[in-house]
Amino acid sequence: RTKLAILISGRGSNMQALIEACAQPGFPAEIALVVSNRPDAGGLDRAKAAGLPTAVVDHAGYETREAFEAVLTDLIEAAGAQLVCLAGFMRLLTADFVNHWRDRLINIHPSLLPAFPGLHTHERAIEAGVKLHGCTVHFVRAEMDNGPIIGQAAVPVLPGDTPDTLGARVLAAEHQLYPACVKLVASGKARVRGDVVKTDAKVDGLLINP
Ligand code: GAR
To answer: What is the pLDDT of residues 64-82, one digit of tens each?
Structure first.
């Protein structure tokens, strides 16, 4: 089974979805470590409740991004993790870190990339009047919210949606999409070829109804 390190900054609901997937018999991955850059992240309690090893690397305690990331890399390597999953990890990572973990570092983003990189994606989707929104799991490259797409899940934008109602619909889709994509990568069914992911699996595009 592929060993995962999960990096979080907050409540950890995507991490929780991965914990539940890894508990299923036959799932091709297991969680070796959960790391938070925030000591107060709610996800840490959820990880501990699941009996997982956790660590806090508080970015505020480091002079430079490089020093912070060196500790992250040491911990991830010491845990023997082969795949690093960003799950609501809200620190930008340097090109050196991203290149060190090239094709072994994946992220979930709450929009259908390349639309709406960055923050406040649900608000921006409503303002733009798009009729489909969703989430993306992708291999991480040095440019923010960019990299070979492993899978996407789309949800409708409904009349009267607020950023909260739309965000909740997208979050439910995230909880389906992230485990599906980790499964593809961990089982070797999704591989990077140049700048795209090749897979013949059926789950790389999900349409999820409200
Ligand atoms: C998720 O919606 C995730 O897609 C988003 O933060 C939320 C974390 O929730 N990530 C980003 O915006 C990354 N830039 P969670 O802690 O409950 O998984």
So the answer is: 999 999 999 999 999 999 9
CA–CA gap between residue 113 and residue 111 (Å, rounded): 6
Give residue for tokens 């999409």.
Answer: 177
Q: Which atom of ligand 1 is closest in space to residue 10's alpha carbon?
A: 16
From the annotation, which residues make up the binding site?
12-14, 65, 90-93, 107
How are beta strands 149-156 and 132-139 bridged, if at all? antiparallel
| Amino acid at the residue 58 | D
Q: Pairing between strand 54-56 and 29-36? A: parallel
Measured by CA distance, the residue closest to atom 9 of ligand 1 is: 88
**Among the options 59, 109, 122, 133, which is catalytic?**
109
The answer to whether 189 and 201 have CB atoms below 8 angstroms apart is yes
Atom of ligand 1 nearest to the CA of 167: 2
> Where are the strands (E) in 37-172, listed by range?
54-56, 83-86, 105-109, 132-139, 149-156
Whole-number Cα distances in Å, 187 to 28, 180, 181: 6, 11, 10
DSSP H helices in the chain: 13-22, 42-49, 65-78, 95-100, 121-128, 163-186
Q: Which tokens belong to 28?
A: 């091709």
ipTM of the complex model? 0.99
Q: Are strands 83-86 and 54-56 parallel, antiparallel or unpaired?
A: unpaired
**Catalytic residue list contains 109:** yes
pTM of the model: 0.96
